[in-house]
């Protein structure tokens, strides 16, 4: 393995790990803000409990997300210095605004929300949370703007071989970003919806298992209470039932929204990165049919052994062009065009090191793009279907007693995480061999901007150095994963009482005992 391959593995592992936390932070933050808004307007105790319980899980995830996200910035300069030099003039603006504006707003107001429960007026306290949530969405926008420029470079002019921003408005309103932002935010809501659904199902099942709730002759729930278990009263039942149904509705709406925005995004990709979409469909030859299932050697770059087993005539044309009859270029045709436009081999330039002169493989790894595209859609569809089933099964106020259903609901939390991760991997891997993909509308122009990934890695960093950092970061991230999962599991099992220590406080002869909850400071 050379330095380039190891650097790609390192960035892929750390980025995907970090991105697992980003959608939950964005989606859950918005849901918690809505819950607190309802409590502010109605003063119903169950909404206060919902706000504090889900808010604590939100904070745990937010903190871990910050810790793992810092590494991304360092990698740009350490492992990808040539890439940083190339994109620096463009990336400087959105990344600086993300750090100095959006993230500072998000973290500052989140701090006010954490420590302001008893210090701020309820209205101001609610505003602080909404500012933090909006800040996280704006932060995502700036990051997506930067990433979208890599997918579709606009608003620049080449000066001495490097792009210089000449039109900031074009960069910040890049049509790739304007479609990717709502798609990403809706995907984040899908993660939050499944998170609420799975955990709430567990607690409703636990209440039935403990004999707190019962059902009448018509199968309708009869909420109960257990004074021996802190917080396990009738209001606790309302917390989990409403959280579950809110989560299910959010999951279904988010899937519909991601399907619509995903279709728009796909049509743009067919125009801007046709090879990515051809590989995603295993469309080896020009045609109109969409492959539901293809078999054969997806690793063969000329698709010589790939055959469609199940396909839908005309659907590929609809996804790409909005009609059912226009031929869409396949891998083989596009590969010829790419070689003519960008060369068959890496240029004889010192920046490529030993890789200079190597043949360029314009077809991305089809195993990744083909199955990643289907996993993205499949996991999202599974989560939406599960949400619809959950709404039906809980129509009488509680969940079935079957343990296997409870476990399935908990495991189902992972489905939208899988959809988000698969979509991100598909987007980034499908762009190869470019780290900055060429803009087809500028083909032949002197200002045509693109950069091969082989030119982006730091020339002064050895394979051994990057491998060492890869091993260390993987171990650190594994440890952080253990910490986060344990914290989430601990406070999830504890229920509302874990987020509201006052529900579990014991009094002895009228004296208040200090709670041992290490996160009690937040409330």
Structure write-up:
This protein is mainly alpha-helical. Helix content is 64%, strand content 7%. It has 15 helices and ten strands. The chain has a two-stranded antiparallel sheet. β1 and β2 form a beta hairpin. α6 packs antiparallel against α7. The two termini are 50 Å apart.
Question: What structural keywords apply?
Answer:
single chain; 523 residues; mainly alpha; two-stranded antiparallel ribbon; 7% strand
SSE map:
Layout: H1 3-42, H2 45-78, H3 81-115, H4 122-151, E1 156-159, E2 162-165, H5 168-172, H6 175-209, E3 214-215, E4 221-222, H7 234-272, H8 274-280, E5 290-296, E6 306-312, H9 315-321, H10 331-342, H11 366-393, H12 403-411, H13 414-429, E7 434-436, E8 451-452, H14 463-494, H15 496-499, E9 507-508, E10 511-512
Antiparallel strand pairs: 1-2, 3-4, 5-6, 7-8, 9-10
Helix pairs in contact: 1-2, 1-4, 1-6, 1-13, 1-14, 2-3, 2-7, 2-14, 3-4, 4-6, 6-7, 6-11, 6-12, 6-13, 7-8, 7-11, 8-11, 11-13
Short description:
The protein has 523 residues and is mainly alpha-helical. The chain has helices at residues 3-42, 45-78, 81-115, 122-151, 168-172, 175-209, 234-272, 274-280, 315-321, 331-342, 366-393, 403-411, 414-429, 463-494, 496-499, and strands spanning 156-159, 162-165, 214-215, 221-222, 290-296, 306-312, 434-436, 451-452, 507-508, 511-512. Strand 1 (156-159) and strand 2 (162-165) form a beta hairpin.
